[in-house]
Amino acid sequence: MSLKSFFAKIFANKIYQKTQLWANNPIETQRKVFEDLIRQAKNTNFGIDHHFAQIKTTEDFAKNVPVRDYEALKSYIEKVVKGEENILWKGKPIYFAKTSGTTSGAKYIPLTKESMPFHIEAARNAILHYIHETGNADFVDGKMIFLQGSPILEEKNGIQLGRLSGIVAHFVPKYLQKNRLPSWETNCIEDWETKVNMIVEETYDQNMTVISGIPSWVQMYFEKLHQKGGKLVGEIFKNFNLFIYGGVNYEPYRAKFENLIGRKVDSIELFPASEGFFAYQDSQKEKGMLLLLNAGIFYEFIKSDEFHTEKPRRFTIGEVELGINYVLIISTNAGLWGYNIGDTVQFTSLTPYRVIVSGRIKHYISAFGEHVIGKEVESALQEAIIGTNIRINEFTVAPQITPKEGLPYHEWFIEFENEPENWEVFTEALDNAMRQQNMYYDDLIVGNVLRKVVVTKVAKNGFQDYMKSIGKLGGQNKIPRLSNDRKIVDLLNKI
Fold first, then answer.
1. Of 57, 63, 335, 362, which residue is 20 to 30 A from 462 by alpha carbon distance?
2. Residue 87 has what pLDDT?
3. Angstrom distance (rounded) from CA 397 to CA 469
4. How many CB atoms lie within 10 A of CB 18?
5. How does strand 159-162 pair with strand 154-156?
6. SS3 state at 460
7. How many Cβ atoms from other residues are within 10 Å of residue 471's Cβ?
8. What local confidence, expressed as pLDDT, does residue 476 receive?
9. How far apart (Å, rounded) are the C-alpha atoms in residues 352 and 23?
10. What are the strands of the beta sheet with 454-457, ordered from one edge?
């Protein structure tokens, strides 16, 4: 055991004990976070406009602060972007995380000196919890790679801006700098394909022990590694045993990854976003990710099936239940208030509070009232391929409302690594699994409103070509699992 791994275990135990203090006192922890946020922001423009000085309870807050998305908060954010102070949070942000907006072009998410440390600590603590639980710390002596956006930052009215993953690259601790790949120069390459090719060259003969990134883009890296030497990733990197990921569900990719690697490896799931780092997998044995209740974020939850009603109830952490689909609403020490990030979650545990990401409130299919969510299509696909040799690279689902003939249907666009031997059996299994996942969909099939799913094969690298065609290849970009229209699949059909 090296000195580095020895001290890593000691530090891991310390962080674990610290985590238990707030995880075992969730309601009190959130109360303190809430009161601190209100106190620090009461003299800001937003705080004055929404009477923070009179807010004493979470019920007061819900009455004074409506749920907003980026568009609804944009008038305040625009003032922050112009360089004005004390608008959403005291002073000025230290960064803007620049993300793609669907209706208004670029979105500028503020990061403050109070919020930024939690992004760094959460990623670190996820690894330390893994070390504490498993006792495995040998990987700290090897090389680690984090597939991310360019760390080159721009400046806007005195505030630096860039992709969140690029900003975070500036905060890598000194003790990890020597272990970290790729090089700074390679990390700065904007073109994703060029960047991945350079990463392959830089890492191929290294002792890689930890690899991290969004699964779809790590898969591209693994495939290029295999193309270079004709070896499995596990043969190239004999000590690679930990994969860290976030952004999408790993399960649809797991079989393909294990095939590319040649063996199973441990994995840690993260739930980061530009708006905050919300959760990480704290246990290899338990389902879900530990919701970070002490990280400068006050959480509210709205049942997804009530979200579009006139006045949906906003639940706090002590009021949530297991297995219900909630829209995640946050208020943060970066100045986002009653903010709908668009993600939906379900609780898998209440002691401590653990969640899974179940989908996006904007990414669903309800063309016929079925309201199918991301978790359901992912689970159905997993169920359909159990016990088969079928492997999936990528997929998305869309409704076909006006078919040339017959009843409407849900159309699954799937890029296969290994295709089904019997398409009829696979399609039947997929449809049956969907009917089990969503009773409204089942009712539509039984009532002859819909016919069974239709599977359309996407050519090899079809999804990568699609992402490239819309300028979103690589980085933190990902394919929506489902849509309520055919905008994505119509473009896929043209590739």
1. 362
2. 98
3. 19
4. 13
5. antiparallel
6. coil
7. 8
8. 65
9. 6
10. 391-400, 409-418, 454-457
